[in-house]
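Below sits our specimen:

——
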Amino acid sequence: MMEHIERFIGRVDEYEQYRERYPPKIIEILTAKCELQREHLVADVGAGTGMLAELFLENGNSVVALEPNNEMRGACERLATVWPGFMVKKATAEDTGLDDVSVDFVSVGRAWHWFDRDKALKEFRRILRPGGWVVLVSNRRNQNGSVRAEAFENILMELGRDYRETHKETRRMSEITPLFPGGVTIREDLYGEQMLTLEGFLGQVQSFSVAPRPGDETYSKMQVALRNFFMQFQYDDELRVETVCSVMACKLTE
């Protein structure tokens, strides 16, 4: 677990500046299908810099952000200075430190694959009120089998740090469904796109946990490969990146 936490050390600036934001439609989905209300308390687990938490705050919810990485949590704490009702704690998915049956929603954005799933689900069941929801949200590239998508995957496979294993884990989000037998499960995919300059593209990749840091053996090789990729597929100095945001909500059985 500690290794996963440390993978994001030194990446918070790129993460805040270049990572794709979550679409506001997430709140519309949760309101319509999960009866999310403004008075509901949300525990955002593995909150990172607070991007998903901010959607709930804008909706009027109180949010407690749980983040073990000191640098990421620092970004959440800065966000808390402008949002009443936003509490930030150093904690993990497996040990939140929250009271029993104390929250209405547990949200997880781009972090589920780092958790010990069995321990995390046990903890979520402990802190959720009866009828509460676990919400998993994942922004990712739309890997549609295009030449461009395959070329980018090849760069990450060849030069990314442990990318093959991390890639496999990120595809396990749907495995949460069997862990809530008898409950209600909702799944929606929201498709979109980004237009990235070279700076934005390089910065976004550098925010990935698998990207080699400056000084690493493969850092320079990846930078060259990324620049060549950008030049090959850009149009008018911008790179079009197709994206998909997956929203999965599982209701805790009574």
Q: What stands out?
A: Residues 2-141+169-193+243-251 form a domain with the Rossmann fold fold (CATH 3.40.50.150). The longest strand covers residues 128-141. Strands lie at 41-45, 62-66, 86-89, 103-109, 128-141, 185-196, 239-251.
